[in-house]
Amino acid sequence: MNVFFTWDYELYFGSETGTAQSCMIEPTQALLSMSKKYNIPMTFFVDCGYLLRLKELKDTFSQVRDEYDAVCRQIEDMGKAGCEVQLHIHPHWEDSYFDGNRWIMNVNRYKLADFSKEEAAEIIRSYTQILREVSGQAVEAYRAGGWCVQPFSHISEALRVNGIRLDSSVFKGGYFQSDLYAYDFRDCPSAEQWKFEEDPCVAVDRGFFTELPISVYELSPFFFWKLFILGRLKPSEHKPIGNGKPVPSPGMRKKYLTRWNSHYVSGEGYFVTRLPSALHTPHIKNLTVLGHPKACTRFSLDYLDRFFARYHTRHTFRNVSDVLK
Ligand SMILES: [Zn+2]
Fold it and tell me: Which domains does the chain have, with CATH numbers?
């Protein structure tokens, strides 16, 4: 089986962003040392709005300069470990700022669809450019912030002219509408990858773009009860290492605690315990795992180390751009 470990490399975007050190640097260091130890390539979708803000403000605030240097060094380390960096866009950075002490998030425009087509095109251009500059790597793949990749026709041309040929935002059955979020993947193909043109949920033969969907599994309410209870009982093991607060997702917790749900296959927190069974799903050729360094826990990092020790020679771990070769 081809296994793609993908990580969205970012701060939190709620009332507290948390620090770059705890949300990004520290957990990613642990992931990169596993990547080197077991020769596992991983793909990091880098929050490029943050990167651009850091660059713009680094000469004004010494704290921002330290963050910028640490993040740039770590992106360099990703390359050295055989990992790749790809484009992740949270466009609300356009409206967010540093107050001299901390980042103040304004998430009123949370997705690219909240900007005009021209504004979205400029965001895609400038965010892709800074990632190429900082990483020295080719940038060919995209993951939308908060999975809000629709309507894709709003951004397809800008992605195309900036060299993006692959999307990995879709997960089968995913659906969420709120003041901030909007995605609906209920009708997307069940295939493990497909070509498309203007809508990632509609396969088109020989389409320009490739969709590498995030894999899904079914999780019971019991699983989520266990997850929440463990977080309370053993916070040092099961609380996220990132010390910020997420953007609210109204209704989400209740949904998970009361019925079975499709959930994307995750490399973070207690979700890692379901990775071996995801690997053993019959007839699947690709497994695409999504996680956030900020949501990794002591428990999940220890678990992943044992997981990679066991499986690194049994499966083919790949970077997402390998799909394009
Ligand atoms: Zn994100």
Answer: 2-324 (3.20.20.370)
